[in-house]
Amino acid sequence: MDTIKRRARIAGLWYFVASIFGVVALVIVPNKLIVDGDALATAERLRTMEMLLRIGMTCDLGSQVMFVGVVVALFRLFEHVDRRTATWVVILGALLSVPVMFVAVLCEVAALYLAKGGPALTTFNSYQLDSLSYLFVRLHGAGVRFASIYWGLWLFPFGALVVRSGFIPRWLGWLLFAAGASYLADSATWLLAPRFLDAVGRVTAILRTCELPIIFWLLIWGARGSGVDTEIASAVR
């Protein structure tokens, strides 16, 4: 029987696995490889820890592919609540953000090629190659910042659907609004007032954790309330 609870748990599983891959790609690997403000040291780490970078790129691509699964699963979960809003979850959560991240991963590929050098790059000396490699590492980070705009925006229709659903606690929807605002505030500060990024980032890093409860709720409980164990067809209006 295809129930709302089952669909919610499928969405939660996709969401959880995609998030794990995302943490590896966007937090753990960059912290190991990037030496802030030091192109030579960063390029040396790319050369000596090439496999770690490749793991990061694989996780980056994998998380984006899995996130397509997340938004599709959420669409199927919430389409009977409000199909138009659920469509915006798909558009903002995957159709706009995923291509940006694929381009960002290409920047990491370029950074690795430049750091390793090769016959096609003999017109550049080692210092120039390392500097260019560092530039592409930073371009990857810029791509993540741009994608973060959509990562923030998609949480608003998602939160609205949670609030209106009746089978997921409303407070989880309000937490999604807070998390969405944190992504937007972080990206806006980076674009408009980068000198305040560290100060703003300390606050937004806390607010972004407001996205975590919905992941575990969907994964563990799925959905609660009257009618969640009935067939989806009976819930569609």
The proportion of residues in beta strands is: under 5%
Number of domains: 1
Q: What overall geometry do the principal axes of the alpha carbons give?
A: elongated
Largest sheet, strands/sense/barrel: none
Q: Radius of gyration over alpha carbons?
A: 20 Å
How many separate helices? 11
DSSP summary, beta strand count:
0
Q: Structural class, please? A: mainly alpha
Low-confidence runs: 229-237
Residue share in helix: over 70%
Average pLDDT works out at 91
Alpha-carbon distance between the two ends: 19 Å
Helix/strand order: HHHHHHHHHHH
Q: What does this protein structure show overall?
A:
The protein has one domain. Helix content is 80%, strand content 0%. It contains 11 helices and no strands. The chain has helices at 4-33, 39-48, 50-78, 83-95, 97-116, 126-153, 155-165, 170-192, 197-208, 212-220, 232-235. Mean pLDDT is 91; it is low at 229-237.
Which features would summarize this protein structure in a list?
mainly alpha; elongated; 237 residues
Question: What's the SSE blueprint?
Answer:
Layout: H1 4-33, H2 39-48, H3 50-78, H4 83-95, H5 97-116, H6 126-153, H7 155-165, H8 170-192, H9 197-208, H10 212-220, H11 232-235
Helix pairs in contact: 1-3, 1-10, 2-3, 2-5, 2-6, 3-4, 3-5, 4-7, 5-6, 6-8, 7-8, 8-9
